[in-house]
Amino acid sequence: MTATTTLWPNGARTAVVLTFLVESWSEGKAPPYSPMTSPPRPGAVDLTGIQWSEYGARAGAYRLMRLARDHGLPATFCVNARVAELFPAVVKQIVKSGFELAGHNYAQDQVLPGLDEKQEREVIWGSLDILERVSGVRPCGWLSSTIAVTERTSSLLAEAGMLWHGDYNYLDQPCKLDTPAGSLVAIPHSDYADNRVLRASPRDFLQCYRDTFDYLHRKEPNGFINITMHGHFGGRPLISAMLDQILTYLRSFPDVWFPRHDELAHWVNSHNIREVSYVERFGL
Predict the structure, then answer these.
(1) What tens digit of pLDDT does each residue of 224-245 get?
(2) Which of 48, 76, 113, 234 could connect to 100 by a Cys-Cys bridge, CB 3.0–4.6 Å?
């Protein structure tokens, strides 16, 4: 692929994917971040933090579904399996509304590094089994909680039949990746998720993605943007309002492709897209 060769379908210049996260922490645990500035006394249950995190499954995910629907866009929801156990209705609605459902560990604080191979395999297969049992659909993609992986995660995901894996931050375009257990499509993660503006102005999120898009669309054919939103943060009106403006702006350009992650992965596979030479890509 040269610097001017079109990668995306129908002559699209930029591909944009929407990654919506619906998360749950282990029993009695809260996120390590929240709007509360004073942590509870050591040993006390952070009930306020727990309730804040549950907003994603109770309300935020539904707002993100409506927002994507109103823009006529697909999206991929990466969901902790514990969410499916506690809030099965939201997982069923994701599938019913035509969005993609993907794995995201069992609980958000159950990260893969530190587990042995047997434990990591159990987390992957167990999470996929729960999501399938509740939704009726077997996920074909995976994003690890906190984007934390081991040297064997990609191979275990290929072994589990995953089409795509979204934990990559050393790539800026999706591509096929070979593992000892088979190939899957590596999808770059977001550089600037919604929770980056937790204690800043929500408009920083809007400005970040407008500036990123303008740069890529003007300078780089085959640009790729992954917009990541957390249901318990980005699903709240103050950030959803920014996403609404971002999507309105991006949709004003006729040459932008908005695939689901699985659609993107099938495109990459069908065209056998591998990691490119960046010297070639950037015309150096």
Answers:
(1) 999 999 999 999 999 999 999 9
(2) 76
